Amino acid sequence: xxxxxxxDRDGLIWYNGDLVPWRDANVHILTHGLHYASSVFEGERVYxxxxxxxxxxxxxxxxxxxLMDFEIPYSAAEIDSATRAVVAANxxxxxxxxxxxxxxxxxxxxxxxxxxxxxxxxxxxxxxYFDPEERLRGIRLQISKWRxxxxxxxxxxxxxxxxxMICTMGKHAAEAEGYQDALMLDWRGRxxxxxxxxxxxxxxxxxxxxxxxxxxxxxxxxxxxxxxxMRGYEIVERVIMPEEMGNFEECxxxxxxxxxxxxxxxxxxxxxxxxxxxxxxxxxxxxxxxxAAA
Length: 294
Fold this sequence. Notes:
single chain, D-amino Acid Aminotransferase, Chain A, domain 1, D-amino Acid Aminotransferase, Chain A, domain 2, 9-stranded mixed sheet, 7-stranded antiparallel sheet
């Protein structure tokens, strides 16, 4: 299905302190963020006009920038306020928010100490990340050849733009083979995450999830852990090797975009979305709607 390009839409984008027309929110071709990936971002969901866990996202954006050796010239509270202004200006009921901060074009080269730090926030209506019918059945994941890097080689706890290139490549390869997403191992060959979401496996009354030592400990991931504990499930954060996937019953992804999405297949391994997947979907939906209403 053809969708309208993101640079040609009606609406307003918050850009360095001002709400500007959507089509005017542009950067120069020699922007450092484009050439050297000196950019960080967030993905946020709007439910009933309110951004879920907005302050956690804003704080993580600020932290991501610091890990990338630059300081966003706005506090988390100011970013919260700007985000609410964007959502209101674009009349978003249910949608998505994308804050992004980047080094500008004052210096062009690896060094960029004098470059301005820019911040923009856009919001738009956006439905489920995966096809709704596919989501209920459980999606299929290919095992990617690309791996999450060693923390000694990249700022893995930053939501940095450059870290997502292998995610794009992994997802493209998976989609070309008829899968909806890809599972990424880490540099040691351990189960890590999907291309843009964390992963959980179930066995009896336990939820097993990889320790986030080389990828983001997602905000949705932490929310689902809280909800699962309230249900009485035991949470086991540990090293998970690929061959162990054959011993689990259910599997699901968590993320701002993916929300809670059941998985029925990862390479040669099969899962049957069941009670736990359904409970986590319902509990998460109830949580985001209740908190939005509050």
